[in-house]
Amino acid sequence: MATIRSRRRAGRIGSAEEAAFLDLLRTTDVLSRRPAEVLKSEDLSANQYNVLRILRGAPEGLACGEIGNRMITRDPDVTRLLDRLEKRGLISRSRQSRDRRMVVAGITAQGLRLLARLDQPVQEAHRKQLGHLGRKRLRDLGELLAEARSVAEPQPRTPYH
Questions:
Q1: Cα(81)–Cα(74) distance, rounded to whole angstroms?
Q2: CA 101, CA 6: separation in Å to the nearest integer?
Q3: pLDDT (tens digit, 9 = 90+) per residue, 38-54?
Q4: Helix (H) or strand (E) holding 105
Q5: Domains of the chain and any CATH numbers
Q6: I want to staple 131 with a disulfide (CB 3.0 to 4.6 A). Which of 117, 124, 127, 143 is the partner?
Q7: CA 49 to chain CA centroid, nearest Å
Q8: Nearest CA-CA partner of 61 in 120, 39, 70
Q9: pLDDT in tens, 3-34
Q10: Are strands 91-95 and 103-107 parallel, antiparallel or unpaired?
Q11: Contact yes or no for 125/35 (Cβ under 8 A)
Q12: Angle at the Cα of 28 from the Cα atoms of 26 and 29, rounded to 5 degrees
């Protein structure tokens, strides 16, 4: 299989920026697989897991729009995503008494137990994939990626919980 560098030399990739972008896409795909396998064992998607992690970090609950803003990957149908989690008893939703239009979602005890079961296996998957880089290189990588995002996404998003 041709590398991005060899395809670039062959004229199929036009710039260093395009090559870096393609490297990011390939890396995202490869690194997403192992955690996805762990989540699949609990019948969760990456977006559902993301929502549960966000809500664990907000014990008072969050409005649906705020959940959408904090997600790693934008999901155009947060309501349907929350419907599936609520149906499984992992989150609950309630209308605010002050503003009946606002629905606040919160994680349930069952959702917290599920995350507790997943914490170690997910962390282990990340360690297996990235631990060889060491703390300094991981920190440097994080800074480079944040810098790359800062141009494409000028408004910093709330950190992932």
A1: 12
A2: 55
A3: 999 999 999 999 999 99
A4: strand 103-107
A5: 43-152 (1.10.10.10)
A6: 127
A7: 8
A8: 70
A9: 555 555 555 778 999 999 999 999 999 999 99
A10: antiparallel
A11: yes
A12: 65
